[in-house]
Amino acid sequence: MRGGLTRRGAVAGAVALAAAPALVAAPALGGALARAVVVGGGFGGAAAARALHRLGLAVTLVEPSRSYCACPLSNAVVTGLRPMAAQVFGYEGLARSGVAVVHGRAVGIEAAARRVRLAGGGSLAYDRLVVAPGVEMRLDAIPGYDAAASAVMPHAWKAGAQTEDLARRLAAMEDGGLVVLAVPDNPYRCPPGPYERASLIAAYLKAHKPRSKVLILDAKDVFSKQPLFEEAWAARYGGLLEYVPRARGGALLEVDAAGMSLRTEGGTVRAAVASVIPPQRAPELCRDAGLAEAGGWCPIDPVTFESRLVPGVHVIGDAAIAGAMPKSAFSAHAQAETCARAVADLLHGRAPETPRLINVCYSLVAPDRAVSIAGVYGIEWDRLVAIPEAAGISPVGAPDALRAREAGNGAAWFRAVTAELYG
User: Which positions fall inside the Flavocytochrome c sulphide dehydrogenase flavin-binding domain (predicted)?
Assistant: First the structure.
């Protein structure tokens, strides 16, 4: 790593920051504790709720599900390396910490009245609102790919039932079958995730169905950690994995779920198992509230993560336009901490400090081997930009022992962050 940053240090720093005690007095408005509402109970929302509570606010988390199914490491579930139960976390720990957890669906934001409307009636008042809603799959973006088609060609890009369905389809496929993975253009959740999935599927085929093959159809020509993935594919999977970029006709044009066929700019392929990851955008709640611009994502102030379009509402995680920061769980956690401190400062009438944020991303290239990249982000020209001299990436040609340590570091980060957020 360059610039003195290590992945171990970045992980330890992020978790330690999240666990740090409050350093400021609780902000109060009119003699009462300031009220923060957080919408969304994923990595960003849970981290924001904990941080805001730690800073002395009265915090309510709104999340429709009784449990959270984590996306990081869910590709290992697809290939039978990990049970789905290891991905599922409840909200009891958050409730015990003092955060009020409301299991309901937010259906509207009344910014002028500072109120969140809930499905079935009722509302929650706030002094500041933090929205961490994740992403919505654009099922209308690919001709032929709708909700019914996604049940046959599961994207599994929200961990849960589709993850298990894709695992079942892979296990049931006869040896000699073709697994097709279609990848969208940027931006989307977890940029290196499709290539991790392809790597683990190739490892599964090598061990259990060696006459089969995985084909990646990509709507772009360049992707995250590309040299590292390509090195692993060449060394480990030979003819088991083929990558087709946009320049060679990889962009998906249409699907026929009934016939299990995918038409691309380069021709039509028929799959035994297909995972089609569609383009994405901020969820309907954000769009209806005026938080999203025409492209479907939410522009924010990079210092506070306050919406540039709706005052008093902050957007973090995958739904936000966060400059150079990727849409990742690690990013969402870092943004939550930054946003929470900014909210407390704003409620105190102080100017928030200019932040510097970290993202560290691990990707499995084999069941027990991984590659990683770390980025540091600062603010330039009113947007989050990468600081190249502080970044680092696993070296090409690294020894196998380093790849094994990276896999262990990734698993350790997941254990630490989920224990801190949900434990």
Answer: 354-420
The mean pLDDT of 396-416, rounded to a whole number, is: 97
What gap in Å lies between CA 383 and CA 235, rounded to an integer? 39
Which amino acid belongs to residue 155?
H
- pLDDT tens-place string over residues 131-160: 999 999 999 999 999 999 999 999 999 999
> Rounded distance, CA 311 to CA 329, Å?
25
Residue 377 β-bridge partners:
357, 386
- Locate the domains of the chain by residue range: 7-135+282-422, 139-276
Angle between helices 43-54 and 7-19 (to 10 degrees): 50
What DSSP letter does each residue of 26-43 carry, written as one string?
PPEETTEE-EEEEE--SH
The answer, yes or no, to whether residue 301 has pLDDT greater than 60, is: yes
Q: Measured between alpha carbons, how far is 86 from 167 in angstroms, rounded to an integer?
A: 15
236-270, pLDDT tens digit by residue? 999 999 999 999 999 999 999 999 999 999 999 99
Domain 139-276 maps to which CATH number in 3.50.50.60, 3.40.30.10, 3.40.50.150, 3.40.120.10?
Answer: 3.50.50.60
Cis peptide leading into 187, omega within 30 of 0? yes
Q: If pLDDT is split at 50, 70 and 90, which confidence band does 26 have?
A: low
Residue 24 has a CB neighbour count (10 Å cut-off) of 13
In this prediction, residues 345-355 reach a mean pLDDT of: 96
Phi-psi region of 323 (alpha: psi -120 to 50; beta: other; left: phi over 0): left
Strands (E), 132-272: 136-137, 178-183, 213-218, 241-244, 252-256, 261-264, 267-270
Please tell me the pTM assigned to this model. Answer: 0.93
Cα radius of gyration rounded to whole Å, the chain: 21
Using alpha carbons, list the distances in angstroms from residue 161 to 69, 129, 150: 10, 30, 12
CATH assignment, 7-135+282-422: 3.50.50.60
Q: Residue 130 in contact with residue 314, Cβ under 8 Å? A: yes
Q: How far apart are CA 188 and CA 327, in angstroms?
A: 7
Residue type at position 75? N
| DSSP 8-state secondary structure symbol assigned to residue 133 | -
DSSP string, 157-182: -SSSHHHHHHHHHHHHSPTT-EEEEE
